[in-house]
Amino acid sequence: MTNDPVLAGFAKIDVTPEYPIRLSGYGVRREETAQVETRLFVRAMALGDKCPALLFALENCGVTEVFTEAIATRLREKTGVERERVAISYTHTHTGPCLSGAAPMLFSSDIPPDHQATIDRYTAEVADRIVEAGLTALADRRAAHLTFGLGSAGFAANRRQQTGPVDHIMPLLRVTGTDGRLRGVWAGYACHCTTLGSQDNYLCGDWAGYAQDGIEREHPGVHGLVSIGCAADANPFPRTGLNYAKRHGEDIVYEVNRLLSGTLRTVSGAISCRLKYIDLPFDTLPMREEWASRAASDGPGAYHAARWLERMDRGEAVPTHQRYPIQTWAFGNDLAVVFLASEVLSDYALRLRRLYDPARLWVAAYCNAFPGYIPSRRIWREGGYEGGDATLYFGMPARYAEDIEEQIVSTVKEMLPIAFRR
């Protein structure tokens, strides 16, 4: 196994709004805020020479596919970097600003026009800064060595069942200059950024933000990126409060430092990137009579049903499928990264590790799009919030069909090189 250098560059740009804005994450929290507990950032990492790959770590609750595609198009026009080589991960902090179109029915009420105008303004500004971060990271590229390792953290807990599955693995990519100096760290952990609650109406990166800040504090001049794994059924424990968010962030920093001080596996070879869109079917759609009954009821389901009735009255067709992006990056035969969109249940990561060599696999979720919770077959059958009840907050007409787990896993199997199979 060789350790040939690869070009690597980094960037970090502040995306903290300088004006009051409504936060995403909790539907009951509807007042705008300009209070800042921590600054929010987008961090970028560019890897490769003639055909570089760009990873973004954005401190936000979620980005739409339209948002990601528009940024990728701008980057391609400016640099030639193709869409499959651009991945936008979001930390899913529940104390970050709303973005246009993301979880559009979260508040179970119309967003006031002045609030929406501010959200649209911020969305455009963040898009500009992500593009700027990508261009800066590409310009920053210089020779480096990549190494990879697996650690663990223990603060994630299954939020459905006390003894339910949790993915505690913490993958880490170390980027070191040819002079031996650390330049960047990318770490991942599968836990919701919900250490802070709906009562916390201020801007904060939650544990992932504190982890990134802590990595950069401990290693001056280094860029620290954190992405979220398959954490749809995992909450931080304990919660809620700033003290807990800081503690969980420091847990990640501690494990990062432990891994950095040890021996990691060499990662080399050209980065092969693939992107595929699949159509995830919805379960049986409600009849109009059912929509009308729901609209006449109390609760968030009434707003959701009323909005769909309005669309039907305008002659809009009710969709039967949801487009879903799946992205893979393979670093030679040394490391395979799977980027799954939105809120993916832990069962997916655990299953993929049974199919592929877990020592060479990284499963990231909360990337590229935000089409609701992605239940496994087990969770679909159990039902509940992650099994389908949360669908209405994302504005979809029904929960997903039972077999989407097989569809997603089969697509990953088509995309990843066979060399990574067990």
Estimate what percentage of residues fall within beta strands.
25-35%
**Which class of secondary structure composition applies to the elements?**
alpha+beta
Helix content: 25-40%
| Beta strands, count | 17
Look at the structure and give the mean pLDDT. Answer: 97
Largest sheet: 9 strands, mixed
Rg, nearest Å:
21 Å
Distance between the termini: 19 Å
Which keywords apply here?
422 residues, alpha+beta, four-stranded mixed sheet, 17 strands, globular
Would you kindly provide a written description of the structure presented here, covering whatever features stand out?
By secondary structure, the protein is an alpha+beta fold. The protein has nine helices and 17 strands. The chain has helices at residues 65-79, 113-139, 206-218, 242-260, 288-295, 300-313, 346-355, 377-382, 404-415, and strands at residues 6-14, 41-47, 53-58, 86-90, 142-152, 156-158, 169-177, 182-189, 223-228, 234-236, 265-267, 271-281, 321-331, 335-340, 343-344, 361-364, 373-374. Strands 1, 2, 3, 4, 5, 7, 8, 9 and 11 form a nine-stranded mixed beta sheet that branches. Strand 2 (41-47) and strand 3 (53-58) form a beta hairpin. The radius of gyration is 21 Å and the shape is globular. The model has no long low-confidence stretch (mean pLDDT 97).
